[in-house]
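Section 5.1 Outputs to date
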Amino acid sequence: MKFSEMQYERPDLEALQKRYREITKQLASCRSADGQLALLYEHEAMNRAFSTMSSLAMIRHSVDTADAFYAEEMAFYDRNAPAFEAYVKAFQEALLSSKFRKELERTTGALFFQNMELSVKTFSPEIIPLCQEENELVTAYEKLLASAEIPFDGKVLNLSEIHVYQVSQDREIRKRAWEKTGAFFQEHAQELDAMYDKLVKNRTEQAKKLGYENFVQLGYDRLGRNCYGPKEVRAFRDQVVNELVPAIAEVKARQAQRLGIDHTCFYDNGNVFADGNPAPKGDMHAILKAAQKMYREMSPETGEFFDFMLENELFDLASKKGKQGGGYCTEIAAYRSPFIFSNFNGTVEDVNVITHEAGHAFAYYLARNMEIMENISPTMECCETHSMSMELLTRPWDRLFFEEELEKFQVFQLEEAISFIPYGCLVDEFQERMYEEPSHTPAQRRKVWLELEKKYRPWIDFTGTVYFEDGGGYQRQHHIYSFPFYYIDYCLAQTAALEFWGASEENWRDAFRRYLDFTKQAGTKTFVELLRRAKLKTPFEQGCIKAVCEKVMDWIDGKAAN
């Protein structure tokens, strides 16, 4: 069904609550695994229906944050999603005590129950008011960013549209663009400080009420991390500091040479070439046409998937006033459909969307008919491996998008891929520090951010961009507010994606076969199990980052030599 034809109706919470109470009570009296399985399927149907309406409201609100109807519907979910979660968690707790667990696992898989055990730890009816407040704060933050109206070059731009000027080959233009962006954040700095302070304290209070020492482990458990914890992530970050940061310092020194400057200032960091970054040849429609050709040639599965997306209009890509910034992929469960949201702006990011977000969408498309909804999606670092690997496995088709700038794009892509990882680690360590010390003042938070900038990105000079020089840069990274502890998933996934890329340089068909198998497992295996199945190292293993770094640097050095 086309997205525009999908009907929205606010869920009847009273009816849902009544039926959840009934099936939760019936679980205990069931005398067979088949009876409990039937109740599990009824839970799945109700969960799928609620998720569908929530997704439709969220998508339509993000497309137009000024739409009063969907703004009110989002307020409804902010208030009531925690109550719905309470019904679900009560059912799950009853299911976990089932004497037929072994029989049920033959249908659900063992990981289904292991993940459920982790999930029920993260919730109690006692924290519902805190969850409601957290949702409202996140919605307010996203709405504030979407409201940006930045005067520049005779236009009024949002945060996505001004990015074109932030990567201009004219250094003065990009400096002014960043100054204007900084001015918007500076204008709202106190409001953003207050929002984050409330979020940190709110999440900390949730953790305390649930019996956690602080929000760090609760944040991991909320993300369903079932095969590693903060200790392993710290070891990964140490590898990045010791192995990757020195190598990227060399990449950035070479970038400064290309740009004809002594060193990289903040407003230079995103500019890889003096004559401008590579840009796609053609508008949004041309990019979609090229993508369809690419996915049809790549494999029968990818071709069928992309045709489905186009036929059902499962994209909203054009940037416009009042639209939420950034990009995402989500699913509309009852319609078994992924949906891709973005803000095309004529830069290289437009192609990244059609590979990165399509990687997410492709993974959901492959798993969409699974009976058990909880098995459709793995943990988020696996999901990001789907998307970031797709970005790199599409390289044989890059010419469709970049024509004569093919090699320029491929250098840009690998330099950006490897340079991103330290930034992602910066974001992750910042969050860990904030939740370990929830009493920090706004000034202390800015001080920590600048300290971590020096640790992870010592090549960047912030002088001259006042807001960022003062350490306010964390406020524009919306994951810090909206998706705590998510950001390291990108780093772990980028590492795995670069391993897939390395394999594809030797044998693309075999690498894609392994990627397809990794993706088809959906949520039935852990991240570590999936990596081992794909014959990849885990990012936590000593030597993994060094091996990935050497492979990428050899490729980059080879191109520089030519």
